């Protein structure tokens, strides 16, 4: 088939030499030579300085990141396009029998060729997040594509307020059609969790830590475990179901604490758990003074650096946290430590942990580098897709 010429109407012309757009989906205002009259949040054809077709994406003149590429093929961004992309993303995550997973991320934005769209499945319910004006405008097409891929499941829209403000659309919070169940129970590797659909952080659970929770479970047997920044007790529940002797959860959010209590009870492990409502930094200091020791410690804090300017303060925070935890680690004990700050690279994070170990006077072996679950894939040419960095360290 002969490729169609780029649409003469909505065209974005790149400046000379802005070749990054040939493989990276983000175009910033500074990359643009000129744009024809385009309705914000609709499709634009990206051409190079010589007028040759490069890609097609969603255009929004409001943010500095003004165009996100959805395809490098000359194809229409219509309902069929969304059906194809969602079907591909779901198929990539299908189990051996070809069935879509009952729990997990089904579509992850740039990594699945659908920038600005997150689709997570929680058993009988689906949670959708539109992060760009383009995706918010394509909401109905996205819903249709999900129905086509998964069958008729209730869809809850949980847009993020910050992204919506930046992109200039009204965030939607609520069911797309008739209301689905307010809470669902899901099973992750044999551990049960209650999820309030549309409530809590992210889309309900930190699905990106799934494989690391599995790792903790595998090494927790017989150990005392400390779950720092516990949220609804994901790591602690896995450790206890995996045979940990006892777990201490530290968390400051009241809703998260209630969720943790519920999940521990649901798994029948509450009698071996202690929930501490506190600031992790303070509690680690208190535990150290009390002479506490643990055989496994998890540190899964929120992003300390939300922008580049916060980087140095974030680094100090990570160092302090890890240093405190290292003081509490038994000989032979494991530390699973994470950073989800986009601006802290894996190298920098390792350096911070090295400094902390030197100051703590503890020798640790790097058993393994940790990252986000495989349903949040990393695209080689889009380094921004690697955001969760972690280390599994063993005290020598
Ligand atoms: N490990 C969890 C996810 C952790 S998210 C899981 O697998 O589900 C980070 C959590 O840290 C959030 O629940 C947040 O409420 C909590 N938090 C943030 N700062 C904190 C602090 N200084 N002390 C205690 N908890 C904190």
Walk me through what this model shows.
- The model is unreliable at 1-6 (pLDDT under 50).
- Helix 1 (79-92) packs across helix 3, helix 5 runs parallel beside helix 6 and helix 9 crosses helix 10.
- The strands form four sheets. A seven-stranded mixed β-sheet has the order 16-15-14-17-18-20-19, with helices on both faces. A six-stranded mixed β-sheet has the order 2-6-5-4-1-3.
- It is globular and about 70 Å long.
- It is built from ten helices and 20 strands.
- With 396 residues, the chain is an alpha/beta fold.
- 28% of the residues lie in helices and 29% in strands.
- S-adenosyl-L-homocysteine is lined by residues 206, 209, 229, 231-232, 234-235, 250-253, 256, 279-281, 300, 302.
Compact summary:
By secondary structure, the protein is an alpha/beta fold.
Measure the end-to-end span: 63 Å
CATH architecture of the largest domain: 3-Layer(aba) Sandwich
Mind telling me the C-alpha Rg? 23 Å
- Which fold name fills CATH's third level, the topology of the largest domain? Rossmann fold
Report mean pLDDT, rounded to a whole number: 95
Low-confidence stretches: 1-6
Structural class: alpha/beta
Shape descriptor: globular
- Beta-strand share of residues: 25-35%
- Secondary-structure element order, as H and E? EEEEEEHEEEHHEHEEEHEHEHEHEHEHEE
Percentage of residues assigned to helices: 25-40%
How is the largest sheet built, in terms of strand order? 16-15-14-17-18-20-19
Give the distinct bound molecules. S-adenosyl-L-homocysteine
């Amino acid at each position: 088939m002969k490729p169609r010429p780029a649409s003469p109407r909505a065209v974005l012309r790149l400046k000379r030499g802005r070749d990054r757009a040939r493989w990276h989906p983000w175009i910033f205002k500074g990359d643009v030579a000129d744009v024809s009259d385009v309705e914000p949040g609709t499709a634009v054809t990206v051409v190079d300085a010589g007028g040759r077709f490069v890609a097609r994406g969603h255009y929004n003149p409001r943010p500095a990141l003004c165009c996100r590429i959805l395809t490098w093929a000359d194809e229409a961004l219509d309902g069929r396009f969304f059906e194809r992309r969602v079907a591909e993303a779901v198929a990539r995550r299908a189990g051996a029998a070809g069935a879509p997973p009952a729990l997990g991320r089904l579509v992850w934005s740039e990594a699945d060729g659908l920038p600005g769209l997150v689709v997570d499945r929680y058993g009988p319910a689906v949670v959708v997040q539109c992060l760009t004006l383009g995706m918010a405008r394509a909401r109905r097409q996205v819903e249709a594509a999900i129905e086509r891929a998964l069958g008729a499941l209730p869809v809850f829209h949980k847009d993020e307020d910050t992204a919506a403000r930046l992109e200039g659309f009204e965030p939607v919070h609520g069911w797309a059609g008739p209301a689905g169940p307010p809470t669902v129970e899901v099973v992750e590797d044999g551990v049960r969790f209650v999820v309030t659909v549309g409530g809590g952080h992210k889309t309900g659970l930190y699905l990106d830590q799934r494989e690391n929770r599995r790792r903790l479970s595998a090494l927790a047997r017989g150990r005392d475990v400390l779950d720092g920044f516990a949220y609804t007790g994901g790591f602690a529940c896995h450790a206890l179901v995996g045979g940990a002797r006892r777990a201490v959860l530290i968390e400051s959010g009241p809703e998260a604490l209630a969720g943790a209590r519920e999940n521990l009870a649901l798994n029948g492990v509450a009698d071996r758990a202690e929930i501490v409502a506190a600031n992790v930094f303070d509690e680690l200091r208190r535990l150290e003074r009390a002479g506490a020791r643990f055989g496994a410690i998890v540190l899964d804090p929120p992003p300390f650096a939300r922008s580049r300017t916060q980087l140095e303060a974030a680094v100090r925070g990570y160092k302090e946290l890890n240093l405190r935890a290292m003081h509490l680690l038994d000989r032979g004990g494991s530390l699973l430590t994470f950073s989800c700050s986009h601006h802290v690279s894996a190298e920098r994070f390792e350096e911070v942990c090295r400094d902390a170990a030197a100051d703590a006077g503890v020798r640790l072996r790097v058993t393994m580098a940790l990252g986000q679950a495989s349903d949040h894939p990393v695209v080689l040419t889009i380094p921004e897709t690697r955001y969760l960095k972690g280390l599994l360290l063993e005290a020598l």
